[in-house]
Design a protein that fits this description.
Strand content: 15-25%
Strand order of the largest sheet: 1-3-2
Helix content: 25-40%
Shape: globular
Order of helices and strands: HHEHHHEE
Oligomer: single chain
Number of strands: 3
Largest sheet: 3 strands, antiparallel
Number of helices: 5
Amino acid sequence: MKSPEIVSIAPKTPESTDVPAEYRSLHKYLDGRYADTVVLRFAEIEDLIGVALPDLARQRQDWWEDAGADGEPSTQSRSWIRATRTAKVNLVAQTVVFERDARPKTTR
C-alpha cells in the first residue's frame, strides 16, 4: 500500500518571496487590501514592520521612489511594487499614499 502524498494547497506567491524579510509584513498588508488607495502614517508602517523607519525615509522623498538610480527596485520599494502599488510620500504629514497600479505585474 502506497502512503498518500501530501500536497500543499497554499498558492506560492513569488512576489512575496522577492520582498526582503524586513518589509514582508508591509507587503502582505498592502497586498491584502481591496481598496485602490491605502494611506498609512509612518508610525503605522513602523508597527507593521516592527522597527523604526530609517532616518532617510523621514527626510528624503527619493527613499520612497519605486526604483533607485540604477533603475532596479529598492529594497523597501519591493514591498509595494510586488503588491501592485505605487507610493507617494508626504514628509511633512508623515504619511504615504499607496495607490493600486493599473499596469499588470508582468510589465513591472
